[in-house]
Amino acid sequence: MKKFLKISAIFLVSLFAFQMVEAQRMQKVNGKNIVNPYYSRTDSKILKLPESTWKKVLNANLFSVSRLNDTEMAFTGKYNDFDGLGTYYCAACGNALFKSDAKFASTCGWPSFFEAIRPKSVIYKKDTSYNMVRTEVRCGRCDAHLGHLFDDGPTASKKRFCMNSISLEFEPNAKNSK
Description:
Helix content: 10-25%
EC number: 1.8.4.12
Mean pLDDT: 86
GO molecular function, one term: peptide-methionine (R)-S-oxide reductase activity
Largest sheet: 6 strands, antiparallel
CATH topology: Metal Binding Protein, Guanine Nucleotide Exchange Factor, Chain A
Strand content: 25-35%
Order of helices and strands: HEEHHEEEEEEEEE
CATH superfamily: Peptide methionine sulfoxide reductase
Enzyme class: oxidoreductase
Radius of gyration: 17 Å
Number of helices: 3
GO cellular component, one term: cytoplasm
CATH class: Mainly Beta
Low-confidence stretches: 4-25
């Protein structure tokens, strides 16, 4: 009986995780539910797609931030004060970006992390917009704009990845989703 309960629990957690991924692939675009065929938590192949393709599969707010380099207003994002345990993924393509144990309360108004999940999960570009010189952080798989990197973080590296919540999707650790 214990084995049956254990297998049933594993099945239910797996089903829950699958449904979460499917829900994240589904977005409302121009009033219609659209499945993003490029969203994958397992495929690490670099995506080189025209902006017109992204516009068809991302909702207007996510497209504006991830493809047009917009920024959501401070203190409005769903992950700003969020402290769940799990993994943050790119909302556009599903690439793993950050673990929750690298998140910290920066009080800047956006979710902040002191390190990426893997060195190649993000890429960096020089950003000279608004008469400033900053380091832009982009998804290493689909080149989506995620936010900026600053040198005032809490660890020895002094890194603060200041991210737009809308560019992120969160999946709780399996042991925390009970």
